[in-house]
Structures are given as structure tokens and as C-alpha cells.
Design goal:
This protein is α/β, with parallel strands linked by helices and about 300 residues long. It is built from 13 helices and 8 strands. The chain is elongated, with a radius of gyration of 23 Å.
Length: about 300
Amino acid sequence: MQIGMIGLGRMGGNMVQRILNGGHEVVAFDPNEQARNTAEAAGAVTVTSIGDLASELASPRAVWSMVPAGDITETTINNVADALSSGDTILDGGNSNYKDSVRRAKALKERGITFLDVGTSGGIWGLAEGYSLMIGGDKDAYDRLEPIFKTLAPDPDKGYGHVGPAGAGHFVKMVHNGVEYGMMQAYAEGFELMEAKKDFDLDLVQVSEMWRHGSVVRSWLLDLTAASLKEDVKLAGIQAYVDDSGEGRWTVEESIELAVPLPVITASLQARFRSRQEQPFGAKLLAAMRNQFGGHAIRSTKS
């Protein structure tokens, strides 16, 4: 099977390699020449424009966009649509907001182009471990492209599936990432508590390895936690600054719209916000209030 791929960053490049390893043909485009050279060395046919990409593909064509969510995805999908024809398919494997995917599917359908929103999890380890693919959109297009999904998945019968209409794939991926926030926060807090218990002098690497085997909290995230602690148990040189890529916010926003309580996921998102503040105003105000009503000591910024 043949597929076009746009976006050859580390994750997209690994996906190209896995598709090629599965015996399929990839026509790849990226504005970065080095990324194209890497894909070509792996066996992909590379082109220097979206128009050339469309020309290289046999009908019905399928083009998979693997670029960051936002304006670049909007521009890429519009440009691809202009180069395709009725009966072709566009796949968005980025972390787009599911509402954008619903809108895009509707607009593309009016042009006869089918759309699949592919929530993709696996990160930079996907080449070796496979990707979890949560796919929404046109069922006929899904069925036609299922050999590609089987190749990308951890196993031909595991880790992928059609979850519903347009937008459903990115909605499920959004919730997946919200759950991920909560799990990561729980691990971080647990290990911080153990690190603070100085009189026990706990070996956090040892604990993480014990938990990885047989424990009810074992997971791939715990595997990655153990790997990080093995590299440097003190995490020296790493700032306590945690970014977010948007899905956690969208998950919390959706919980408000549907009136579904998500206390753990919401708290984990708020913890990330707090991690970015060097001198949070709210904490200083709390200290000031305690001083006002009880005369409690405050720590001055004056040297």
C-alpha cells in the first residue's frame, strides 16, 4: 500500500520508517531538507512540495499530516486538499482539538475528500514499540487504510481501532492525554514524598525497579520514570518547569462543558501551571494574610 506523509520530525520520521518496514510505500514531504534526506535514506520517495506529493501518489490517494496542532495543521490540510481530488483521504495524526477535526471533516466532505482524525500515542518510542492509534472519521476510508494502521500498531490485532465519527479519534486522544497528566503527577508526588523521607535514605532507583514488576502501579510511564532516575537520581540540571501541549486544558474545558468532575486531571494541570512560577503571587499573598491576622513570620526578599 502507498501513502503520502507530511511532517518528518522525530515522531513522523519514525512512523515513516515503521511503515516502510511493514512493506508499504511512502512518499514524503517536509520543508526541512535534512528531514527529507533522512526519509529518503530510509527508503521513502521524497518530494519538495505538496503538489509533487499528490502527483506521486496513485488514486485514491491518502495523505497523512504529522505536524503540530494549530495554524500549521490548518494550512497544511488546506494546501493538501487543494492538491487532491474527490475520493482521496486526508489523515491528521497530530494533537488537534477534536472540534477542529469535526469542522475540517465537514468542509472536506463538501469537496468529496474523506477525513480521518488519528489520535496517535507512542512518542519517540513508536518505531520500536508501535503506536496506539485512536481513529475517527469515514469508516470506508478507515477500512481501506487499515493495513497501514496494522503496520503502525504494536501488533496487527492490538492497539488501534475506529472509535467513531469525525472528531472521535482526537477526542479519545485528548482524554488519553488528560489521564496521562494525572498518572504522571501521581508518580511525581509519590517519589517526591519518598525523597523527602531522609531518615529512611530510600534508594529511589531500587523502588522504581521493584514497582515495575508485579506491582499494581506498573506501567510504561513507570518504566520511563525508572530510566530517568537511573540516569541521575538527583535530576541535577533539570528545572522544575513543566509545560503542557494543550490536551490537558481541552480535557478540563470539556469536563466543564459536560459537567463531569475531573478533580485529579484538573489538579495535575494546575500543578503544571504552578511549576512555571518562580515567585507565585498567590503564595506571597497567603504569607501576607497569615502575618496580618496572626503575626506569623514572613520571609523577606530583602537580603
